[in-house]
Amino acid sequence: xxxxxxxxxxxxxxxxxxxxxxxxxxxxxxxxxxxxxxxxxxxxxxxxxxxxxxxxxxxxxxxxxxxxxxxxxxxxxxxxxxxxxxxxxxxxxxxxxxxxxxxxxxxxxxxxxxxxxxxxxxxxxxxxxxxxxxxxxxxxxxxxxxxxxxxxxxxxxxxxxxxxxxxxxxxxxxxxxxxxxxxxxxxxxxxxxxxxxxxxxxxxxxxxxxxxxxxxxxxxxxxxxxxxxxxxxxxxxxxxxxxxxxxxxxxxxxxxxxxxxxxxxxxxxxxx
Length: 272
Hints:
four-stranded mixed β-sheet; 12 strands; globular
């Protein structure tokens, strides 16, 4: 349960939608039901002021809104006093796609994005990518044991129920020094999944995440590296490849970055 007063989230609406499809497999041709992931826009506000609108999978909306504000640096270091939907008790379904993070007016006036953010682009279109990178201090964190990191895929990579049902979502998992998962989130957008993890950690007093690592089911892009840095993770482990800019950022920030983490192997890109 979230520890911030005034934070009461409604039960998640449906995250999947069943449709009838025609499945062709060799000589077989048949009609069969298929579960598709739901994707809806959600507006994120800070003290009522619109910050961004992102396409996301419904569920863990408060985690997403808070995590976005943390990783985008718009909180300005002030505490979150509450999170709520911009709706009253008789709200229509569409009003549950609008969330405001409340600081009592203590946070700086946010600078909104130039247009909506897609579920795949993360910081694309942000007015302040360079400013975010410049404001973050290098981390003072202990590296994770490499044998532990190499075995993460078998320990936490299978905890993806939405992916198992739809094959259409990304997963992010925060794990501790023993390799045990602390929180796992799934979303149509890889950046949203990370923000949902970060938001959960923030609302439960677990940031900065200097004793935690972050595992992601896709590639390690610059944007994911920036989010990992903003949250203070000691390591970012990706199933697929990192970008050159993500590696440069991880080396500058001082956290471990590994890619191709599958089975019992990985590539470490930040070793001295």
